[in-house]
Specification:
It contains five helices and two strands. A two-stranded antiparallel sheet has the order 1-2. Helix 2 crosses helix 3. The longest helix has 27 residues. It is globular, with a radius of gyration of 16 Å.
């Protein structure tokens, strides 16, 4: 079993969290809604229920169109996204510190 990302540890494994986590882990790429649903493990119907609120909140931006398909990526310039990244980094650092302490406790 793979370890949960810091974002999923902090916010839980909810559909919206899974989508944000996936987009942050692939922040250099853009994806169609079908790809986002598939790669984040969220059903398309569920994704459609909240995805456009992420666009309205400027968490996700439309990057281009290929035919009729619109492609999206996480908006790294968004203050909210930057806060999520910062929180994720702090949680990751905290987890690493705990792991180091465990390693030293066996010495």
């Amino acid at each position: 079993m793979s370890e949960k990302s810091p974002i999923l540890k902090v916010f839980g494994e909810y559909p919206k969290t899974k989508v944000i986590d996936f987009l942050l882990s692939s922040s250099e790429s853009d994806f169609s809604l079908t790809d986002i649903a598939e790669k984040s493990g969220v059903g398309r119907t569920t994704l459609y229920q909240f995805f456009y609120s992420l666009v309205e909140q400027n968490v996700v931006i439309e990057t281009r169109k290929i035919g009729r398909a619109k492609l999206y990526k996480v908006n790294l310039e968004s203050q909210l996204v930057q806060s999520i990244i910062e929180l994720s980094q702090k949680e990751s650092d905290k987890s690493k510190s705990k792991d180091m302490l465990k390693d030293f406790s066996y010495v």
